[in-house]
UniProtKB/TrEMBL annotation:
Xref: InterPro entries: GTA_rcc01693 (IPR011739), Phage_TAC_6 (IPR019056)
Pfam family, one: Phage_TAC_6
Protein name: Putative phage protein (TIGR02216 family)
Xref: NCBIfam families: phage_TIGR02216 (TIGR02216)
UniProt organism field: Albidovulum inexpectatum
């Protein structure tokens, strides 16, 4: 048995989102989370974060900041 609270998820879908049961079961997990608008979902990588990561972990060894 999985660790998912399927009854709880179904209650969210039917109550909070107003979905019909068959619509809930057709959703992918990503679609369901998107519909819930949960703030804990990771945001897409933006340019400034990408540049920060590139500085911290460059493609060539020995070129990270502080080395």
């Amino acid at each position: 048995m999985s660790g998912f609270d399927w009854p709880g998820l179904l209650r969210l879908a039917l109550g909070r989102l107003g979905l019909q049961p068959e619509a809930f079961w057709r959703l992918t997990p990503a679609e369901f989370v998107l519909m819930l608008g949960e703030p804990t979902v990771a945001r897409p990588l933006d340019r400034s974060r990408l540049e920060e990561l590139a500085r911290l972990w460059p493609d060539r060894p020995g070129q990270a900041e502080g080395e």
